[in-house]
Amino acid sequence: MSTQTEARRKSADMSNVVLSVRDLKKWYPIRKGLFSRVVAQVKAVDGVSFDIHAGETLGFVGESGCGKTTVGRTILRLLDPVTAGSAHFQGTNLFDIQGEELRAMRRKMQIIFQDPYSSLNPRMTVEAIVGEGLTVHGLVSSGKERRERVQELLKKVGLDPVRHISRYPHEFSGGQRQRIGVARAIALEPDLIVCDEAVSALDVSIQAQIINLLQGLQEEMGMSYLFIAHGLNVVEHISHRVAVMYLGRIAETAPSEKLYSGPAHPYTQALLSAIPDTDPDAPMNPEVLEGEVPNPINPPPGCRFHPRCRFAQDRCRSNDIPIPVYEIAPGHSVACILGEQVAGAVKIGEQTGA
Ligand code: SF4
């Protein structure tokens, strides 16, 4: 980890919780028959709790379908209604507000989408895209003021404020379009940005540029990020802490350096072993995960990871025995029975069966 990255990580204020999510559930009913009776539930998110602090980046990682994107969008109220749980943002439960209160809160929480091609309206100029929020929220009083503000924002994200402002999205590369998406997200000076697979569609070199841009903006503006990605390699350099999700639940949460140097959950260990080493001569022994990701309509009993876990025991396979969640070091928690083997581990909760 570079000294620069280390310094940026330290800039988070860990005593100031900006977002506190508790036991969040988002289920989708499956209906059948003449009367559309609910016959099953897709448990996309099933009891997720976490905090994000001021100026902090929480990496949120897991395979496709684990529920990470649903978490981000549910918090932003883009997916209503929530099934259960709370999400307090600066003290207000986001699921309790409507109308003007929700609109005002949305100004403080923005999103950067995965696909820079489809997330920008092709018929709008860069000025209209980036300046839309400024106009909607009454933050500029004239067209001239809006144009000047948009030019400042373009400069901040590394675009040309004069040449690029009147162009349309199709005139830009993928990386440049994502910079437009970043400018739109920071225009209202939010306190939290959900980066929803924000670099997943980009080439690796462009990914690094966008991550550096986001880190620099966080350092300058102090906002927090919920940084969602499907690979642990993507979030390593931007995250202060990382949460690993599996089938709608959090398997492990830890400060970034602890997660990468000492993963405790067998799923995290498997994900990390699959990351290629930057040294071409380094031995590569990826741990192959057995089996498929189970169907969230009918998740496995007990620990949801047990059909693919090489350490699974009888007590991992039963709904009768909850899976304990241990804190094995400050800020490092793991939902796995193996946590009990770590000296000093403290049980802080449990995950009940399907
Ligand atoms: Fe594996 Fe059991 Fe731990 Fe689940 S609780 S990850 S099945 S050892």
Descriptive notes:
The chain has 354 residues and is α/β, with parallel strands linked by helices. It has helices at 3-10, 68-75, 99-107, 126-136, 143-156, 174-186, 204-221, 232-235, 256-261, 266-273; strands at residues 13-32, 37-54, 57-61, 84-89, 92-93, 109-112, 192-196, 224-229, 241-246, 249-255, 323-329, 332-335, 346-351. The protein has two domains: 3-108 and 190-276 and 285-290, P-loop containing nucleotide triphosphate hydrolases (Rossmann fold), CATH 3.40.50.300; 122-187, no CATH class. Helices cover 28% and strands 27% of the residues. The strands form two sheets. The protein has a nine-stranded mixed β-sheet with strand order 6-7-8-3-9-10-12-11-13, with helices on both faces. Strands 2-1-4-5 form a four-stranded antiparallel β-sheet, covered by helices on one side. It is globular and about 70 Å long.
Descriptors:
2 domains, 354 residues, 28% helix, 4-stranded antiparallel beta sheet, Rossmann fold, single chain, alpha/beta, binds iron/sulfur cluster
Number of strands: 13
Element-by-element helix/strand order:
HEEEHEEHEHHHEHEHEEHHEEE
Structural category is alpha/beta
User: Could you tell me the strand content as a percent range?
Assistant: 25-35%
CATH superfamily of the largest domain: P-loop containing nucleotide triphosphate hydrolases
Query: Between the first and last Cα atoms, what is the distance in angstroms?
Result: 39 Å
Global outline: globular
What is the tally of helical segments? 10
What strand line-up does the widest sheet have?
6-7-8-3-9-10-12-11-13
Can you identify the CATH class of the largest domain? Alpha Beta
Share of helix, binned: 25-40%
